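Record type: ASSEMBLY
Status: queued
Input:
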Amino acid sequence: MKFYKDHYDVIVIGGALAGLSSALMLANKGKDVLVLERHNLPGGLATSFVRGGVEIEATLHEMMSIGEKGNRLKVGKFLEDMGVEIDWLDVPEAYHASLPGIEVTLHPGLERFSREVDAEVPGTYDKVLRLLQLCNTVYESVNELSIHPMSKAKMLMKHEAFVKTAGYSALEVIETFDLPQKAVDLLSPYWIYVGNPLSTLPFTIFAVLMADYIGYGSKVPKKLSHEMSLKMAERAEAMGVQIEYRQQVEKILVRDGKAYGVRTARGDEIFADYVISSAYPNKVYTSMIEPASAVPEKAFKLVNGRKISLSAFTVFLLLDQTAEQLGIRDFNVFRGETMDTDEIFRNYLTTGPYNYLTAITLNLANPTCTPEGTCILSITALPRVDGWKQVRAEDYDRVKHETAKTTVETMSRYFGVDLLAHALEVIIETPMTVSHYTGMWNGCVYGYMHCMDDHIIARLQTAEEERVIEHLEFSGAHSISGNGMGPAVTNGRKAAKNVLDTMAAEEASK
Ligand SMILES: Cc1cc2nc3c(=O)[nH]c(=O)nc-3n(C[C@H](O)[C@H](O)[C@H](O)COP(=O)(O)OP(=O)(O)OC[C@H]3O[C@@H](n4cnc5c(N)ncnc54)[C@H](O)[C@@H]3O)c2cc1C
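Status: finished
Output:
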């Protein structure tokens, strides 16, 4: 008996959030789907690991776009619609900003957040609230337009704020509100969740980020991000999807300009009408298409025209006391020597020490995520891979430990606790760890950088032109909606929708 079927409707490369979202949506429409995952478990970056007998969250700080039961936002709603039930927990605050001259904890809710900024920078309430309301209006337009595309003229009438701000950077729009620098600094910390300095970050992306996180608050799954991956995989299998682990796809087979199957590292050739790839286009076009001559010149121009976004450097510390005992009060601390995002972005080109850190104490949202009497602290910088690529193999261990040491020292000073003296386990994750684990291009976790000429709106406009190999779609942080776990789910859905639309169009033209 053959292990694989003779033919599938769709093969999905990669069983992480994006790939599993594609699989769920296609299976929901009755399609025959095979998911091939190179690891022995699903999830990609949405995963955990075990040290000292404790399961530790590998990546997730907080999920956007979940919403409340009965009023779910788009990611929460998709998972529920697919029958994926996650035990969501509230993140208690937006963030604690620890910046030069600033120590303040801010909470979700547009009005509450504005009041809290006003308490720090008196006289700013109205302006901050108006800015956040503008973000919310743009966010609502983006949500509607991503489902119901419309003509430019109609868009201008119905979505004026969205159209008016679309051509400007976050900084340019914020400047029109004439806020004191301290208030601007208080509005800036989330920039790291999209990875572009405010001077080049399109306002539309900033608006979506602020409206979602500050307007609705964020969540974490009780059983860590792996709860999402495991439950999505389980549900997909229950819906008839075949998922095979430890199957690395080496080649995507192309004939007459159209993908028709894959070859795995084990040598299996498997056939399908469509292929969806979680691997980056850079990797697919440079080494995965067979024959290589099937890749048109235009494909290289397209990937060369995009900039790879950030990777990650994290130190995880399993600590021998509770957060309360150690005096750690905030779930999410953004600790910056500066809030000049251009300066931080330049610093992130290096291997450290990093001048902007995020410290998450997961127990403050998820009290039972570690054994009683302990807590887990993860300290993250999101450097670009450039600096790490220069490190020679023989220097790697030293550089990694030096950067980890300064990272822990910075946060020890901040918390007033010798964190290393309390550490039961210390784990260091670098861009190389990410690259080895997911196989992602340059250890990237955020896909391509959003910039003024390449972000969700521009990508939606050029999507058709970018389909250089027929019946091949891309699904992952590197696709239209960009970085993060929520957007990965949205990207997975979009890839599946493209496949379903093409299927329907081809069927109709027969
Ligand atoms: C430290 C850290 C913190 C983060 N914090 C947050 C956060 O708080 N909130 C948030 O929303 N996001 C966060 N992210 C980003 C988020 O994890 C990613 O953007 C998202 O998980 C990407 O999902 P994906 O499905 O696109 O890809 P990945 O998770 O990278 O998965 C790709 C999958 O494809 C598989 N694969 C690749 N190539 C092949 C092949 N050839 N054959 C078979 N399988 C293949 C890989 O094994 C992997 O399973 C964080 C990331 C890091 C590293």
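Annotation: Residues 485-508 form the longest helix (24 residues).
Annotation: Residues 8-66+224-306+449-508 form a domain with the FAD/NAD(P)-binding domain fold (CATH 3.50.50.60).
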